[in-house]
Amino acid sequence: MRPRTPARPAAMPLVAQVYQRLADGRFHSGEELARALCVTRSAIWKATGGLRALGTSLEAVRNRGYRLTHAGKLLDASGIRDRLARPVRERVADIQTAWSTTSTNTQLLARGFPRAGTSEVLLAEYQTAGKGRRGRAWLAPPGGAICLSLSWTFPAVSHDLGALGLVIGVCALRALRSQGLAGVELKWPNDLLHGGRKLGGVLIELRAEASGPACVVIGIGLNVALGAGPLARIAATGIAATDLRAAGLELPRETIVAALLTAFIQGLLEFEQAALKPFLAEWRDADALRGRAVNVTGGEGIAKGIARGIDAHGALLVETAQGVRRFLSGDVTVRAD
Question: What pLDDT score does 168 carry?
């Protein structure tokens, strides 16, 4: 099956062009950048200020110029596709990369359903309205993270479709392990942790037709090399975060994206055949909450108890003073006691 011809990319803004020039990690003078990009020194100064405002760690040294302290080249769709094995590549109808968008999930949701058995993929360096669960913002600077969305069509709404976020968590775990990263844990319902700190998160959004197919958009944000500034901004929201660089994994982002897409597509095909069952043991082995004292906040208030894992349909089990309760949704925090 032939991939869909990608849309013509929009003109790259100056901040993106400056980032691209600095992505080699070397110093480049303002004069050199201005000459190469056919703009004024003032425009370069404004563009570097724009990069800092987006959270990019940028060093400026007198008589040497500007340098990215966490260098990483912009994502390239063809570079990602070339890293995919043929059976996976044939199921990716389209890969697009963007410098900036509102939200990769929102953009894919606005499109038509992809053909059954194929996917469409959108990545952005920066999201102006990046989404976490329950409307929370997702913070990620250009070059420092992977902001990826993938759409997939199921023939019908499955009974276990609500547990797809757990499946994708296991798939992300498989992908990172395949690249040599151990110690990743899964926190119900949608977080990836390393060393007890948030490494990434999953957001599943659904479009369904009555008695018809269901299109899911799978969003994942994965911290790669955030830098001190973005980590401090995330900490200010009450979340302790980490990234792949701190965890000891330093690979080109395109390699990591290809590993994620491979694991996602293989996992989606597996899920279509056997629902949650093939993923349960792996999820339970990586469960970051099991046996811990937790608070679960949901529509009925706050429930306190001990996390006892998940059931066969992905619901969180919590042992409370009133007995074991089953939660299909909610926010979970670990209690100090």
Answer: 97
